[in-house]
């Protein structure tokens, strides 16, 4: 017996009084009550009382209280005293039902949380008082003895108390939320508190009266309006209350699990693995625990796998789903999760469980530690049903990791599965995993539980008495699934036989049945449900083949809709005639709203084994009928804008009612057909009738409607595989050439436009389709069917672009890339010190970055089996990583004395080779992590590249000593003499697949081939690159060579003839550091200084025509002539060129003389002279008419000269240099005037005079602009700051009142030359560094030069038309002010401006934020309007050449992409782009 604290005060008395309820004392217990009331136990110093064992007496409890009294004298609030003693009292109670145990555990956790927040007493005094009364009353003897009987009510009380504790904990944040909504805080607080108090009053009265009444628990809920839509979620993966254990069964195991789940001991194991064979009841236990935790107000989630839902790939959504469940239950966790996805939006849809675990689970939990009630209990049921081992590999890796062992102390994960080998290996021996086996539960316990179950199911039948129940319990042999099937069979739900007869069939089956107990049960039920006649059995086989062949379960109505489209009349029957009496075996029969699926997975195992199932055997799936039905459903059901989306400005995730639209317009059988038709087709033998339906789908606009549905269903990820398998099915079939061409184009279409289609379904039509290459079969077929689309009026694509994916994530130069042996993954190493792994198809990052290196990662490589990755770094170490788990294997391999430039595995994967700045090559043993032998020495310079030969017997190395060397990999000695011929550093080397040739790339800009046996060069050097060759390699067949260069191009060469056969592939905005063929030779992966990894299509990369005429390298500077008729440009190709500003045609030949890159050019004020500055540290003056140099070069700078300019009178020249100085020169004599101007902390990239000649402006890579006084040579005012990158060009306006600056941050900024304040917003339009900004003399035009090897001319006067009328920050804006329309044009033809621009501004009010949002191209390729409205998406290959809104002309003229938007339909008119034919 437990002590009695109080007699029976009416709980409701507390409603109107702030005093404690009246107390009737018992003389025998008065001292006990007094001591407990005045000396509550301190929970942190009390020894927990064991759950089982003798119950302490009242005197014992008082003694325990006395031991702690001195430590808690500072607790002055009397209402909190019962909370202090609650834990020690309830843990002393024995024989507690596990459900009540759950509620008590949560009440204990809530009490501790409330005590820690006692400082909030003044904020919510009434609520804290009520909670104190609740705990005090629960501790009454009469209340305690009813714990088991009133466990349902107790759970409701726990749920309300838990919610109240969370309310108290989050009260400060809630007040802030109410304040933002403009609500009255006092009123909202009172309303919430009243809700808790009134609900508790009703529940406590019900508990006291021992009445079971249906009291609705309405808990006030305040969740901030934060959007988690678009975040991956596995619908239907939660717990199912119909699967709970029968009350009174599994008590012992449930008690142990609940004790573990609610135990607050920080040393408790974080994971409990409940394992057992099929039919043992694992899932019933899992669903029971999850249900109890939720009902009692616990914090948790339940995620269930199912064999028949494997096609949904639930494993890819597991931790995202769990995180969303937790966010729905706790405000603090929700806030932390929203913070994560807000900072990195791409995480919302990630299928990478590693990132989900790190960012969605561990991250938010670390931020809410101590802010939650009790433990976080996550149930993961039936992990063994996820699919093949690969489907759960990452999940097991995480659960068995060190991170899982050190999960927060309040984290509990209950995992159930069969003891499969991979799960056993991962979890069986982990110290942080508690393993419990249902196979080891005592026979007595199992018999007890099954007896209760059978009694409940059949005990009410007069024919079934104790003897019959005992027989069934004995026959079950501990299998709950057998007991369930047997009970369903015996029940009187079929005519023809009595209950007694049915019992005898189950209990005493006819001899000769054979097989396991379950097999006998299955045969018994099927013999009863399916008559043994040919017609019925045929229908049974047909129905079960359909159900079992489906890639995911469907409802009965959807299955029948599919069957109605089967090709043969005899198969088009209502499935009910077969399934009606199979409810003991299949779900979804009695309840037609549920999915038709086996109630236990062993049933499918039975049917597919002919020895076990006999006449009921269901053989290999006949996919023909399902394929036929799926294709017919698509052709009949697909339609344009199927969900009636109103606006093209929104992404799918922004359409608030999209789920409702999908439910209404996309039927389950259409959804299924869209997602799985190609998988069925792939498993079907070729059939001409099916070809007809494939053509009907693919050779019409229906194929686009199919992609639209996949976009809406967030299932586009399977579209490429669907078409690829269709192409294989059609390959080499006569008469299928045309449809095969469309399918192949469809694959390219998805690869190039998949990201935009997934983002927004309308942009499948208005963005993706119009940018499809004109010469493709897909474009020729589809474009005539659509109107109102953008027209690419200049420079559009004619063939599929080379570049398919740009993988972004690294924060510094990508130094190296490597493909896995199967071509499905890419590894990249970067100067951001990380290695990253990417999915080669989707471009998504797999897992988090591999971190550990303390310096830039210069080399990576996969092991031959793809399971390991090796990396070499500037931190002088080699590291080996587990490619699946993303963790380092062993310790770093140390020995090199300098930076490591290159690493690689041997062909057998047992050794690694590395090359370093210490001039050595070293070999390492992968397993032991030690160096093999001594270093290979001989090079006189850094070893830049190393590779094993295909047979593993030789190593080739390349060095900056300009040689290659071949080494014996076994003996560690050099073979033959060095291979000489390069005139620059040898940057990259590699063997041909047959090991007979070696390829090398060098800083001498050439690629060379060598005979690996004789060590001699084969043929001449391969020439074409205009800068260092950084990376080379052979194709898998050895017939081609690939090279990547700092000239930002990739080229492919014929390995036999030595001629370029493809490329240059352009698209990188930085030097190409690494290139590699895919294993099938069809793709190329590159890594670049622009921080990206890119994937290229080799097959579509044949160069068409000659190169564009003009500069052959980056244009670094451009300037207008005084009459604005000519433009001068300077390039890294060492030349100066003059152009006609009107038509972009070059005038005369190039001006040659500089011996290095030309960095800056300009006209003299009279237009007769041109000035240029170069990396050769000279300034040169040229005659603008004749193109000849005037006089000698101006010399004096000690570093590259980066910028020059004439004074307005033409008498002085100013120059800026990487020596950080500005210098002034006499233009006639060429002599320096005065001392250099110092002040910049970095290279001076640009200089210029003011129009009056009195000031000089300079821009530097210290990201500042500075103004100088010409006469005194001192700086005027403070630096102009705001750019986020190097300031590479600066100019005064013609009036001298403004300053223009261009930067590597890809913007132009305008400054007030007097106040030095920035005017308006940055001008954007380029996608690369802006090297030069020049203003025309009349101030109407701006010329920009960038890394795009082109000059862009902008409208200087009207750049403000992109903004609302009030475009200056310091001009007051009327409020509210309606935004005025402005032209949106991406073409040199004004009439090509966007039609109906008012739509883009509809509903917006002008304010500062809208004024900062001009319609422009964003870094992700979207042209967006104000408020992020989606106007159009541009393919990556066109970004750099897109005609900007500010642009007037491009030089050369054929270098620009222009868009005609005059006929485009957009916004709420987008659907007018397609008009179906009646």
From TrEMBL:
InterPro entries: NACHT_NTPase (IPR007111), NPHP3-like_N (IPR056884), P-loop_NTPase (IPR027417), Quinoprotein_ADH-like_sf (IPR011047), WD40/YVTN_repeat-like_dom_sf (IPR015943), WD40_PAC1 (IPR020472), WD40_repeat_CS (IPR019775), WD40_repeat_dom_sf (IPR036322). Keywords: Repeat, WD repeat. It holds the Pfam family NPHP3_N. WD repeats lie at residues 807-848, 850-891, 893-929, 936-977, 979-1011, 1022-1063, 1065-1100, 1108-1140, 1151-1192, 1194-1235, 1237-1278, 1280-1321, 1323-1358. Residues 270-419 form the NACHT domain. GO terms for cellular component: nucleus; transferase complex. The keyword Repeat applies. Residues 1-30 are annotated as: Disordered. This is NACHT domain-containing protein.
């Amino acid at each position: 017996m437990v002590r009695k604290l109080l007699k029976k005060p009416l709980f409701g008395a507390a409603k109107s009084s702030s005093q404690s309820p009246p107390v009737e004392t018992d003389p025998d217990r008065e001292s006990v009550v007094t001591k407990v009331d005045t000396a509550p136990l301190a929970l942190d110093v009390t020894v927990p009382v064991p759950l089982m064992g003798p119950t302490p007496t009242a005197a014992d409890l008082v003694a325990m209280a006395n031991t702690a009294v001195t430590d808690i004298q500072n607790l002055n609030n009397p209402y909190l005293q019962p909370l202090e003693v609650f834990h020690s009292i309830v843990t002393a109670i024995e024989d507690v039902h596990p459900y009540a145990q759950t509620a008590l555990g949560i009440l204990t956790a809530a009490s501790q949380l409330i005590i820690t927040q006692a400082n909030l007493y003044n904020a919510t005094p009434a609520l804290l008082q009520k909670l104190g009364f609740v705990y005090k009353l629960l501790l009454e003897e009469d209340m305690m003895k009813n714990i088991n009987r009133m466990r349902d009510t107790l759970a409701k009380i726990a749920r309300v108390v838990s919610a109240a504790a969370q309310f108290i904990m989050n009260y400060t944040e809630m007040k802030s939320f109410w304040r933002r909504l403009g609500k009255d805080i006092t009123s909202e607080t009172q309303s919430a508190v009243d809700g808790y108090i009134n609900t508790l009053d009703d529940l406590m009265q019900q508990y006291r009266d021992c009445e079971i009444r249906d009291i609705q628990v309405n808990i006030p809920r305040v969740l901030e309006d934060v959007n988690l839509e678009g975040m991956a979620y596995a619908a239907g993966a939660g717990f199912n209350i119909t699967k709970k254990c029968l009350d009174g069964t599994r008590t012992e195991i449930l008690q142990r699990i609940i004790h573990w789940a609610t135990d607050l001991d920080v040393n408790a194991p974080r994971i409990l693995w409940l394992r057992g064979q099929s039919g043992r009841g694992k899932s019933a236990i899992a669903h029971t625990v999850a249900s109890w935790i939720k009902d009692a107000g616990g914090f948790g989630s339940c995620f269930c796998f199912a064999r028949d839902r494997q096609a949904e790939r639930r494993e890819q959504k597991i931790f995202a789903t769990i995180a969303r469940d937790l966010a729905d239950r706790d405000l603090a966790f929700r806030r932390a999760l929203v913070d994560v996805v807000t900072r990195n939006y791409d995480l919302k849809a990630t299928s990478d469980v590693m990132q989900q675990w790190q960012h969605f689970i561990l991250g938010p939990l670390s931020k809410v530690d101590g802010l939650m009630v009790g433990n976080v209990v996550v149930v993961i049921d039936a992990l063994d049903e996820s699919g093949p081992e690969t489907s759960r590999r990452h999940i097991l890796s995480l659960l068995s990791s060190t991170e899982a062992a050190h999960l927060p102390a309040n984290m509990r994960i209950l995992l159930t599965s069969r003891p499969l080998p991979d799960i056993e290996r991962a979890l069986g021996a982990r110290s942080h995993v508690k393993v419990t086996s249902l196979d080891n539960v005592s026979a007595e316990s199992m018999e007890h539980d099954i007896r209760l179950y059978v009694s409940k199911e059949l005990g009410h039948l007069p024919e079934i008495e104790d003897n019959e129940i005992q027989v069934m319990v004995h026959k079950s042999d501990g299998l709950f699934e057998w007991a369930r099937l047997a009970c369903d069979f015996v029940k009187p739900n079929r005519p023809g036989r009595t209950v007694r007869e049915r019992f005898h069939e189950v209990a005493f089956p006819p001899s000769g049945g054979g097989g396991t107990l379950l097999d006998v049960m299955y045969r018994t039920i099927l013999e009863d449900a399916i008559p043994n006649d040919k017609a019925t059995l045929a229908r049974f086989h047909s129905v079960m083949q359909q159900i079992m062949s489906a890639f995911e379960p469907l409802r009965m109505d959807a299955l029948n809709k599919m069957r109605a489209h089967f090709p043969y009349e005899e198969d088009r029957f209502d499935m009910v005639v077969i399934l009606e009496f199979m409810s003991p075996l299949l779900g979804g029969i009695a309840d037609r709203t549920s999915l038709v699926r086996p109630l236990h997975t062993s049933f499918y195992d039975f049917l597919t084994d002919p020895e076990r199932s006999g006449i009921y055997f269901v053989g290999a799936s006949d996919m023909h009928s399902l394929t036929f039905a799926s294709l017919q459903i698509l052709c009949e059901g697909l339609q344009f804008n199927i969900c009636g989306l109103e606006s093209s400005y929104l992404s799918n995730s922004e359409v608030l009612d999209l789920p409702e639209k999908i439910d209404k317009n996309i039927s389950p059988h259409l959804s299924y057909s869209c997602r799985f038709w190609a998988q069925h087709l792939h498993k079907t033998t070729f059939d001409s009738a099916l070809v007809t339906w494939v053509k009907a789908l693919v050779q019409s606009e229906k194929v686009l409607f199919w992609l639209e549905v996949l976009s809406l269903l967030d299932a586009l990820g399977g579209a490429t595989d669907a078409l690829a398998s269709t192409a294989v099915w059609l390959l080499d079939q006569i008469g299928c050439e045309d449809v095969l061409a469309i399918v192949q184009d469809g694959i390219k279409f998805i690869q190039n436009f998949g990201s935009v289609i997934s983002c927004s379904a309308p942009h499948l039509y208005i963005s993706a389709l119009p940018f499809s290459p004109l010469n493709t079969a897909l474009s020729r077929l589809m474009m005539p069917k659509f109107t109102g689309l953008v027209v690419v009026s200049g420079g559009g694509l004619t063939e599929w672009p080379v570049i398919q994916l740009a993988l972004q994530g690294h924060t510094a130069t990508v130094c190296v890339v490597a493909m896995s042996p199967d071509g499905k993954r890419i590894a990249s190493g970067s100067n951001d010190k990380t290695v990253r792994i990417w999915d080669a198809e989707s471009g998504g990052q797999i897992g988090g970055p591999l971190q550990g290196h303390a310096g830039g990662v210069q080399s990576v490589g996969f092991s031959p089996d793809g399971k390991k990755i090796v990396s070499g770094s500037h931190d002088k170490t080699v590291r080996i990583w587990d490619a699946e788990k993303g963790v380092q294997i062993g310790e770093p391999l140390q020995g090199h004395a300098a930076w490591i430039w290159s690493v690689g595995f041997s062909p057998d994967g047992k050794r690694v080779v590395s090359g370093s700045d210490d001039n050595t090559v070293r070999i390492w043993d992968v397993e032991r992590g030690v160096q093999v032998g001594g270093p290979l020495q001989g090079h006189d310079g850094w070893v830049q590249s190393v590779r094993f030969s295909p047979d593993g017997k030789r190593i080739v190395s390349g060095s900056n000593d300009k040689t290659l060397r071949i080494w014996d990999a076994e003996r560690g000695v050099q073979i033959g003499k060095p291979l000489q011929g390069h005139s620059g550093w040898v940057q990259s080397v590699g063997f041909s697949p047959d090991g007979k040739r070696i390829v090398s790339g060098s800083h001498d800009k050439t690629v060379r081939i060598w005979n690996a046996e004789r060590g001699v060069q084969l043929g001449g050097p391969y020439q074409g690159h205009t800068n260092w060759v950084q990376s080379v390699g052979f194709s898998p067949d050895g017939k081609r060579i690939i090279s990547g260069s700092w000239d930002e191009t990739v080229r492919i060469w014929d390995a036999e003839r030595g001629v370029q056969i493809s490329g240059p592939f352009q698209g990188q905005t930085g030097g190409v550091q690494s290139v590699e063929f895919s294993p099938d030779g069809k793709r190329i992966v590159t890594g670049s200084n622009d921080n990206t990894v890119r994937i290229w299509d080799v097959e579509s990369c044949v160069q068409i025509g000659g190169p564009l005429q003009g500069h052959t390298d980056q244009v670094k500077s451009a300037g207008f002539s005084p009459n604005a008729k000519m433009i001068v440009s300077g390039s890294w190709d060492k030349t100066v060129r003059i152009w006609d500003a009107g038509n972009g045609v070059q005038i005369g030949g190039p001006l040659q003389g500089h011996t290095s890159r030309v960095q800056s050019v300009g006209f003299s004020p009279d237009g007769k002279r041109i000035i240029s500055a170069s990396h050769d540290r000279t300034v040169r003056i040229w005659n603008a008419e004749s193109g000849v140099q005037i006089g000698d070069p101006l010399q004096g700078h000690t570093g590259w000269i980066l910028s020059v300019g004439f004074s307005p009178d033409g008498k002085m020249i100013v120059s800026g240099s990487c020596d950080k100085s500005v210098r002034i020169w006499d233009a006639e004599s060429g002599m320096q005037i005065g001392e250099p101007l110092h002040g910049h902390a970095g290279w001076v990239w640009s200089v210029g005079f003011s129009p009056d000649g009195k000031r000089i402006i300079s821009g530097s890579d210290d990201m500042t602009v500075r103004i100088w006084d010409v006469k005194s040579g001192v700086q005027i005012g403070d630096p102009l700051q705001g750019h986020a990158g190097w300031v590479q060009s600066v100019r005064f306006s013609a009036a001298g009142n403004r300053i223009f600056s261009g930067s590597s941050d890809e913007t132009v900024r305008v400054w007030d030359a007097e106040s030095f304040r920035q005017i308006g917003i940055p001008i954007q339009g380029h996608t690369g560094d802006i090297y030069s900004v020049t203003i025309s003399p009349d101030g109407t035009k701006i010329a920009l030069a960038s890394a795009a090897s082109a000059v862009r001319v902008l409208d200087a006067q009207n750049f403000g038309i992109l903004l609302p009328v009030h475009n200056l920050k310091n001009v007051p804006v009327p409020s509210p002010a309606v935004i005025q329309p402005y032209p949106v044009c991406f073409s040199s033809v004004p009439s090509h401006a966007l039609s109906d621009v008012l739509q883009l501004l509809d509903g917006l009010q002008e304010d500062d934020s809208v004024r900062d949002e001009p319609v422009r191209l964003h870094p992700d390729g979207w042209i967006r309007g104000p408020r992020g409205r989606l106007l159009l998406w541009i393919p990556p290959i066109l970004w750099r050449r897109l005609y900007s809104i500010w642009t007037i002309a491009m030089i050369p003229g054929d270098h620009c992409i222009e868009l005609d938007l005059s006929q485009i339909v957009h916004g709420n008119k987008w659907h007018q782009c397609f008009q179906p034919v009646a």
